[in-house]
Q: What sequence folds into this?
């Protein structure tokens, strides 16, 4: 039971690090020194020390979204297995629950953005709901393909059964599902090629523009929640891509940690070598991701 | 039966009080409200007793009607559907007693209340009737009483709405009549007790009955493309009536369909497929149409079609599982469908009542004219928000429980049963797409109406509604939470219904039922944990913010400090990325003028959306019929002598036919 708590604790501590690694990788490609690796932590510390400024238009929903976001992500962490370590809470259908928890987090963020009455934030909210409506089938379909492979739709037994041997026999399925999930990962965490977190023009943002009016502690909550969300989706991908199921606590945890660092570097590389897609192309990209998971389902 | 009798008497008394002094908003109205509410409570007690103890009751009375018998019967299936009828009927009556006295409503109060109570009573009779002809009679009574409610409402399209509704209902009823007559001829009696004989008939005959039932009951439930009356009738009716119609009345269609399917024995293989595809297609197309609507109640009406689609998909995968002998999937599919019936009744009535509260205060239901109501109407806003979260199937509210069960059925089908993989993946794909689009749709509905700044003078002067309306909204919102947190307790009710299905009666489902209840129990606990975690993070935020400065500023506008309300995103612009993606189905007509010169003067933009099936299927079909009938209109010359001659000729012809 205590060992099952390791992964959630690890996530709570190391989640902001992923963003630091991404930024460091991007800086490396750009030939810059870049911000320190721990910059996300310094940012969080700074934000949590501040007060808040609210728009006169906003109200209850605007305050609720950031705090609920952190609560939702923390709850999600309890369902994540780590290598062969079982999750703290595991039941048939926990993966559906995770998808819907992330769904309500997004729903509340959208409502908070609409609460400001700003055209920019409305634009971001409108794009967010449109793209996530297309990303959700990909995610559930990819998980369904895995459920068929593992003959279970609870994450813990599923991860338990997807071992290196499964990779030897069913590499195409797993690769396709991972490709689909990776695109969902990029879209849901608002990374290039769907969204550019570094852009300075409100018109071209999706996620960043939705949180323009949040400040201080609330902004800190949002940043932390999005770091946790990246960890949650990332550890699903790593669970598939790195089939180390030793059952030894340190080996399993180490493999997930290394995997996530590698994923963060990969994201940094993707962001360095390609540009954001035009908004019109994003739906095609997401439908393409869905087709990846469907092919993954069919080839097994 | 005693409880039922008491409930019925209470409803009659409530009706009587309304008739005695219809204009009175004082003691008579309050008395009627209390009587209606207690009728709902007493009736609900009977339902729960029947469902838990399976004490079926039977009531027979002599009746003069030829071929028919007056038989009432309450078994687990009818008790399950009776529960929302009593509950929502009572809440809607409480809400209506304030709503009908608002200056917005101009209809005749005694007529309106009579139609309301008649509708309520006839719906009770529909699910209790145990005789085909009695059922049809009650069925027609619901149609006629709700027709009067639809045309008594506001809106300039109410007559059109009323006729579309009446026509659609009677086309559906025609199929049902044929179905009952066929069944009655083959089984020898119109009584439901003899319906089970139908299980032994040939596959062709049973499939014919199944198809007639799907068309007849599907018209009421709102299967695509038979749904065209819903988006017309729901916006036209007074809001508490829309709540009753959309939350409960359309479910009598689902009830009838399940009743017939349950008496037809082992399903033929394609029935499940048929229902599954109807359900998913209805769900996806309807939610896309809902997303594009400008009228809040129309949006909710389309969303009802979508939710009926989800129920039908659950029913479909359940039937397929019965065919392939996978009883876990069957249990999950059926009970997911039934729980969604109950949950949808609660949150859809909540949303319609919330829309009614907005309508009374602002005199408009056009989404793009509203805005900023959260601060002015906090009770309505919070309840409406809970309704939106529930209907998008997000935890911790009740919508998630039922959709979760249907998802469980699909995932079980995919991961365990080989023969059910195809239906399983279709349900997963369809439900996830519906889920994402529903989130977009209700993010639009809630945020444009309640958040931001008021978009027109309608929304500026809004105030919170009175006590009766507020409390009924709060009651339903709390019910959404209770149905989720105590879900495992409520699950025994749909299980009792599923056990009464003939192909499953001989199978021991208790292991599967216990397992499902266990999983749903964990989900409920996690929903509770979510609330606690949110409370903890709220406390943490308060802790960080104590002694800190809280500033107040204008919304960030890129340095522009003169923002006006018209700069906000509207509902149409919010939905634009998705409506453009689905333009092939929607066919939105855009009209714009001005705004393209170098020095823009006054510009305008309009977009219109018509129902695909109304435009492409029903209007051409009815035009063809009326054109064809015009060709024989010369028979009806209007001269009395000619008409008498025709009668004589017909009689003469009949006599000759009779001779041979």
A:
């Amino acid at each position: 039971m205590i060992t099952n708590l390791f992964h959630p604790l690890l996530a709570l501590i190391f989640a902001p690090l992923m963003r630091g690694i991404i930024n460091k990788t991007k800086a490396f490609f750009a030939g810059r020194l870049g911000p320190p690796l721990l910059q996300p932590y310094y940012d969080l510390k700074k934000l949590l020390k501040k007060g808040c400024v609210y728009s006169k238009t906003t109200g209850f929903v605007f305050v609720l979204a950031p705090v609920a976001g952190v609560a939702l992500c923390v709850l999600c962490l309890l369902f994540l297995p780590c290598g062969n370590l079982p999750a703290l809470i595991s039941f048939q259908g926990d993966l559906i629950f995770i998808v819907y928890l992330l769904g309500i987090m997004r729903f509340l963020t959208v409502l908070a953005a609409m609460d400001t009455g700003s055209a920019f934030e409305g634009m971001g909210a409108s794009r967010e709901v449109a793209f996530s409506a297309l990303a959700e089938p990909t995610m559930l379909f990819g998980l369904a393909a895995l459920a068929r492979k593992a003959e279970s739709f609870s994450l813990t037994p599923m991860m338990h059964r997807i071992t290196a041997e499964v990779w030897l026999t069913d590499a195409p399925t797993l690769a396709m599902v991972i490709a689909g999930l990776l695109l969902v990962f990029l879209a849901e965490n608002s990374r290039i090629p769907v969204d550019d977190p570094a852009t300075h023009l409100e018109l071209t943002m999706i996620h960043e523009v939705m949180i323009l009016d949040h400040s201080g502690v609330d902004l800190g909550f949002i940043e932390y929640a999005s770091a946790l969300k990246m960890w949650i989706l990332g550890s699903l991908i790593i669970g598939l891509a790195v089939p180390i199921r030793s059952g030894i606590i340190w080996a399993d945890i180490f493999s997930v940690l290394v995997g996530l660092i590698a994923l963060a570097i990969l994201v940094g590389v993707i962001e360095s070598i390609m540009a954001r897609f035009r908004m019109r192309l994003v739906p095609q990209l997401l439908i393409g991701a869905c087709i990846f998971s469907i092919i993954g389902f069919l080839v097994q | 039966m005693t409880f039922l009798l008491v409930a019925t008497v209470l409803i009659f008394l409530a009706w009587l009080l309304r008739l005695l002094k219809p204009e009175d908003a004082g003691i008579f109205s309050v008395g009627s409200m209390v009587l209606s509410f207690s009728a709902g409570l007493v009736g609900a007690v009977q339902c729960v007793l029947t469902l838990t103890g399976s004490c079926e009751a039977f009531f027979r009375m002599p009746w003069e009607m030829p071929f028919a018998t007056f038989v009432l019967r309450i078994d687990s299936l009818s008790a399950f559907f009776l529960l929302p009828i009593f509950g929502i009927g009572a809440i809607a009556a409480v809400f209506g007693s304030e709503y009908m006295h608002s200056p917005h409503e101009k209809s005749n109060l005694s007529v309106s209340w009579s139609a309301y109570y008649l509708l309520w009573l006839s719906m009770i009779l529909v699910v209790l009737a145990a005789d085909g002809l009695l059922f049809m009679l009650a069925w027609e009574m619901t149609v006629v009483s709700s027709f009067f409610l639809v045309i008594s409402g506001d809106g300039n399209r109410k007559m059109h709405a009323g006729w579309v509704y009446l026509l659609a209902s009677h086309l559906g009823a025609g199929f049902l009549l044929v179905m009952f007559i066929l069944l009655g001829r083959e089984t020898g009696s119109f009584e439901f007790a003899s319906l089970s004989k139908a299980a032994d008939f040939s596959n062709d005959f049973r499939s014919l009955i199944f198809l007639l039932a799907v068309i007849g009951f599907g018209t009421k439930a709102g299967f695509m493309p038979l749904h065209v009356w819903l988006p017309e009738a729901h916006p036209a009716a007074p809001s508490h009536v829309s709540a009753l119609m959309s939350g409960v009345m359309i479910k009598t269609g689902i009830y009838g369909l399940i009743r017939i399917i349950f008496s037809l024995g082992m399903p033929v293989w394609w029935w499940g497929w048929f229902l599954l595809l109807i359900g998913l297609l209805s769900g996806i197309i309807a939610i896309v149409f809902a997303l594009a609507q400008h009228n809040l109640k129309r949006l909710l009406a389309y969303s009802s079609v979508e939710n009926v689609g989800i129920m039908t998909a659950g029913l479909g995968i359940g039937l397929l599982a019965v065919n392939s002998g996978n009883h876990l999937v069957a249990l999950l599919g059926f009970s997911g469908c039934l729980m969604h019936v109950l949950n949808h009744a609660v949150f859809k009535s909540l949303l319609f009542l919330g829309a009614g509260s907005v309508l009374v205060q602002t005199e408009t239901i056009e989404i793009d004219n509203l805005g900023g109501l959260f601060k002015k109407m906090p009770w309505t806003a919070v309840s409406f928000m809970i309704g939106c979260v529930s209907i998008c199937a997000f935890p911790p509210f009740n919508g998630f429980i039922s959709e979760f069960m249907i998802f469980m059925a699909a995932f079980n089908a995919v991961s365990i049963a080989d023969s059910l993989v195809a239906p399983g993946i279709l349900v997963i794909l369809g439900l996830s797409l519906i889920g994402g689009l529903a989130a977009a749709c209700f993010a639009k509905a809630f945020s444009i109406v309640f958040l931001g700044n008021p978009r027109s003078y309608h929304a500026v002067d809004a105030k919170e509604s009175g006590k009766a309306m507020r409390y009924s909204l709060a009651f339903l919102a709390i019910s959404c939470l209770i149905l989720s947190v105590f879900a495992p307790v409520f699950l025994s009710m749909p299980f009792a219904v599923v056990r009464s299905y003939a192909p499953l009666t001989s199978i021991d489902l208790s292991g599967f039922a216990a397992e499902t209840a266990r999983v749903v129990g964990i989900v409920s606990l996690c929903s509770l944990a979510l609330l606690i975690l949110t409370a903890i993070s709220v406390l943490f935020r308060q802790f960080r913010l104590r002694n800190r400065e809280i500033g107040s500023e204008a919304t960030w506008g890129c340095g522009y400090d003169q923002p006006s309300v018209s700069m906000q995103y509207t509902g149409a612009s919010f939905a634009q990325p998705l409506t453009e993606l689905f333009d092939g189905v929607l066919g939105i007509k855009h009209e714009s003028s001005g705004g393209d010169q170098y020095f823009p003067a006054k510009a305008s933009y309009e977009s219109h959306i018509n129902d695909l099936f109304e435009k492409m299927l029903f209007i051409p079909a009815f035009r063809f019929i009326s054109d064809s009938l015009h060709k024989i209109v010369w028979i009806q010359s209007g001269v009395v002598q000619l008409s008498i001659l025709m009668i004589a000729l017909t009689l003469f012809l009949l006599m000759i036919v009779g001779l041979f």
